[in-house]
Design goal:
This protein is mainly alpha-helical. It is built from 14 helices and no strands. About 5% of the residues have low confidence.
Length: about 325
């Protein structure tokens, strides 16, 4: 328990620093966006490159990765079933709601948590890759397909959506594939995978610059997250209450519970089980709000789900560590 308190305390202190910097405007109004871009495009890819290159590749085909895939998929299917099957939300709002329930903040919080609590950033690789290679492309495909129809319906949060240019399905598929292939985090992780599978060992001197830059990923991500909390809300729309309750319940309760059940059924124990359950308890990713804003659907739900699940993540992690640590 002392280890998790130390890790959470360290993370909270760095987040508080970011909040203070953002509140005072010390680094300027554009600092959060610039730091977020630095973490996303440079620091995190460098860290993942070095981490995956030195990791046991069996992790990516391990019971831990399978547990993450199964539990995340089940959570997404539950969200889809309720939002579409019971509440009859339109496809775009179902997509955003599903992402709010299943897409975790693996970059800003998962990466530091893996470093400070679990002692190894490789624990964040399975959820990151699953989200970037499976969840995000599928979500983009649905959202782009809806945009291509020129639908001007009103979303569940009351925001009118203007018609967009009709796009052919081949163009949509190509854009989704290109967007995924150009993602810096995917490039970093897959580059590390290539390096790890080479029949010879690369000199450590080659990895040193990447390791040095990658070491900044975790603290910078926390500073960036703290600064984002200091930014006032850009919109006053409220998320539909039951949609928000569903997303928060799935994210903070159902997801880690499923990861624990699936992991236990697959024979995971000790630190391996703790790692997958802790990653499953992470809050909704800020990326979901970015996607919602990009497509003009579900911004209020994405914003509020991110805030509420982040507040509830700390007590959830304490409970998980007390039970499994």
């Amino acid at each position: 328990m002392s280890a998790v308190l130390t890790a959470l305390g360290t993370m909270a202190a760095i987040i508080a620093l970011g909040w203070a910097l953002g509140r005072r405007g010390t680094l300027g109004e554009h600092a959060p966006a610039v730091l977020a871009r630095l973490v996303f495009t440079v620091a995190t890819p460098c860290l993942l490159f070095v981490t995956v290159a030195h990791a046991d590749l069996r992790l990516l085909l391990s019971r831990s990765a399978l547990t993450t895939a199964i539990s995340t998929t089940v959570v997404a299917l539950i969200a889809i079933s309720v939002l579409r099957g019971l509440w009859r939300r339109n496809a775009a709002d179902v997509t955003v709601g599903t992402l709010a329930a299943s897409y975790v903040n693996a970059g800003n919080l998962g990466l530091p948590l893996a470093v400070y609590l679990l002692g190894d950033a490789v624990a964040v690789v399975p959820p990151l890759l699953y989200q970037l290679l499976i969840l995000a492309p599928v979500a983009f495909a649905v959202l782009d397909a809806r945009a291509a129809t020129g639908d001007d319906a009103t979303g569940s949060d009351g925001v009118a959506v203007a018609p967009r240019e009709r796009l052919p399905l081949t163009r949509i598929a190509r854009d989704v594939l290109l967007r995924t292939a150009r993602n810096p985090i995917i490039v970093g992780a897959l580059s590390g995978l290539v390096a790890a599978t080479l029949p010879w060992t690369l000199p450590e001197e080659l990895y040193s610059p990447f390791a040095l830059v990658g070491a900044a990923a975790a603290p910078l991500a926390l500073v960036t997250f703290g600064m984002s909390l200091a930014v006032p809300r850009l919109t006053r729309e409220r998320a539909p209450r039951r949609d928000l309750v569903l997303a928060v319940t799935l994210r903070n309760v159902v997801s880690p519970a499923l990861a624990w059940l699936v992991g236990t059924a697959l024979g995971l124990t000790g630190e391996a089980l703790l790692a997958v359950v802790a990653m499953a308890a992470l809050p909704t990713a800020q990326n979901v709000l970015v996607y919602a804003m990009q497509y003009g659907r579900g911004q209020a739900l994405a914003r509020d789900a991110g805030l509420v699940t982040t507040v509830l993540a700390a007590p959830a992690l304490l409970v998980i560590t007390a039970l499994l640590g």
